[in-house]
Structure formats: C-alpha cells, structure tokens
Specification:
InterPro entries: DUF6978 (IPR053916). The chain has 144 residues and is of the alpha+beta class. The chain contains two helices and twelve strands, in the order αββββββββββαββ. The chain has one domain. The mean pLDDT is 91.
Length: 144
C-alpha cells in the first residue's frame, strides 16, 4: 500500500468516477460485491466495495479504494462503534475518510459530512456515490 499525501487523497476523492465493465447489479441483502471504476480519462483505477452481509437486518458498508488497497472513503451503517487513534469513540453509523499518516483509521459521525439516517439501502448508496463523485449509470440494478 502506498502512502498518499492528503492533497493526493483529497484530489482522488474529488475526481469524477465512472463504472467500468458491464456488471451493474448491486449486491442484495446478505451479499457483497466489488465494482471497478475509473476517472473519466481512464488514467486512474478505483474500486467500489459494497457489503450487505451481517446479522442485523439493515447493515451495510460502502467503500471507495484507489488502485488496490488505499481506502479513500468508507461508510459503515449499523456497524460496531469505532475507536479512533486518539481514543475518541464514534457511534455505529460513521464514515472513514483518508487521513495522511493514518489511512482509514479515523472515523467521524456521518452527520458531520452531510449524511442522515436514511430509511433505505438505496438512499445510502446514492448519497455515498454523490459524496465520492461516482457517476451512477442509468442501467444500475438494485436487488433488495
């Protein structure tokens, strides 16, 4: 895993990204999936992980990675509380945003980044895509 600078990470998060390939089926409850993304010029590769596995009825994780392992943003809904490196704790609904020197080890309450407690998986999906500048194709298939 490379060590990104904060400037690099912020630029990668802000970059518009598009889905590659033909797979447009989003994982249904109890499953997970990975989508390859690229910037609009095709110079950078990203991965969009969606995890809907878990024993809680509504639990999900969305994650944007750069190249193979650099986690830029991860949204955890109904996950365990998270303890930050400084000992502060955030609740079950939190967002990890790349922080230089710490990678994705810091998490923040979702309301500080414009997220709310939504009623559906789809609302979280679209809001995460908006936050990460992922362009959602018209032919996306949501399997509930």
């Amino acid at each position: 895993m490379s060590e990104l600078t904060q400037t690099q990470a912020d630029a990668l998060i802000a970059m518009k990204k598009i889905f590659n390939g033909r797979n447009r089926k989003i994982a249904k409850s109890g499953e997970s999936g990975i989508f390859e993304l690229s910037d609009e010029k095709g110079k950078n590769t990203f991965y969009f992980d969606i995890d809907r596995r878990g024993k809680i009825e509504f639990k999900c994780k969305f994650q944007e990675r750069y190249e193979t392992n650099d986690v830029l943003v991860r949204l955890d809904i109904n996950s365990p509380d998270h303890m930050n490196p400084d000992g502060t704790k955030v609740g079950r609904n939190h967002i990890h945003i790349y922080r230089e020197g710490y990678a994705d080890r810091w998490a923040y309450d979702i309301d500080k980044y414009g997220f709310e407690i939504y009623n559906s998986f789809q609302e979280y999906f679209y809001r995460f895509c908006e936050f990460c500048n992922i362009i959602v194709p018209d032919n996306i298939q949501m399997v509930l």
